[in-house]
Amino acid sequence: MDKFRMLFQHFQSSSESVMNGICLLLAVVTVKLYSSFDFNCPCLARYNALYGLGLLLAPPLALFLCGLLANRQSVVMVEEWRRPAGHRRKDPGIIRYMCSSVLQRALAAPLVWILLALLDGKCFVCAFSNSVDPEKFLDFANMTPSQVQFFLAKVPCKEDELVRNSPARKAVSRYLRCLSQAIGWSVTLLLIIAAFLARCLRPCFDQTGFLQRRYWSNYVDLEQKLFDETCCEHARDFAHRCVLHFFASMQSELQARGLHRDNACRSPEPPAVPEPPEVLDSGSEKAHLRAISSREQVDHLLSTWYSRKPPLDLAASPGLCGGGLSHRAPTFALGTRLSQHTDV
């Protein structure tokens, strides 16, 4: 159980591990979907190519979009690309690195589907049966062109009465299946060689730029995640204080109207009223959250976070990000918690 907990915490803290797990899960689902799919070619000259190519390319497109939706970094990348510069300059290298990472993970499942379809050969036979050159096969010598096209359209349907025991159908089907498998294995070999060269040749070049882009792409993801968590924490604390303030005001109103007389007779001491935020210890853990104590301040904080991200310099003046939140506590101390988690 302890090992499982440690593994879960590792996946929870590492965004790359989570994305790799989702990528692997989509690839496994792709294999399962293809193995359970019932392939039925229409065996009509007009629709064979449309059905075969559609089945070869449409599911990979859907899987690619699912990979983009499941990858949280795709949203973070678009936000980083479209955000105003503010106090933090935008680095195109970080956006390119995040785009490359997102595309690599999103293309895994579509490539698995395409390779499975090519190695199986059914989609390829259905799509290109009408494109075969009849002169390569001697069995079509005594047929008219219209009969040849009609016969080739029936090649994927081996149970059809016209081509059930025809040697020409077997020859065309075997030819197209071999061509499909050759393309599939060639693509697989090229992908393996490309991955091998990328892995082996990377240490031969300067790693400074790669390490910097990787670090800051992870930083952008973690910063946004910590900001969302801190906003949720502030919303919970703010709601709690608003409810307590409501009960305290209602209690004062009841006492003013004399409706609280019975309880006052039972207990001579008035009930405790929640302590206002101003008297709280500014060094407490939630002091930076209690500093934002009105709707206008929250709206201004969120607007400032979007339009003017704080500079990546912990020694910079906090006034660069404050922008008019009047309160006794530091105005933008919310960023302090982020800097404690992501020390640069």
From TrEMBL:
Location of this chain's protein in the cell: Membrane
Name of the molecule in the record: Calcium homeostasis modulator 3
Cellular component terms per the entry's GO annotation: basolateral plasma membrane
Membrane topology: Multi-pass membrane protein
Major subcellular location class: membrane
Annotated GO MF terms: monoatomic cation channel activity; voltage-gated monoatomic ion channel activity
GO biological process assignments: ATP export; protein heterooligomerization; sensory perception of taste
Transmembrane portions of the chain: 21-37, 49-70, 178-198
Family classification: Belongs to the CALHM family.
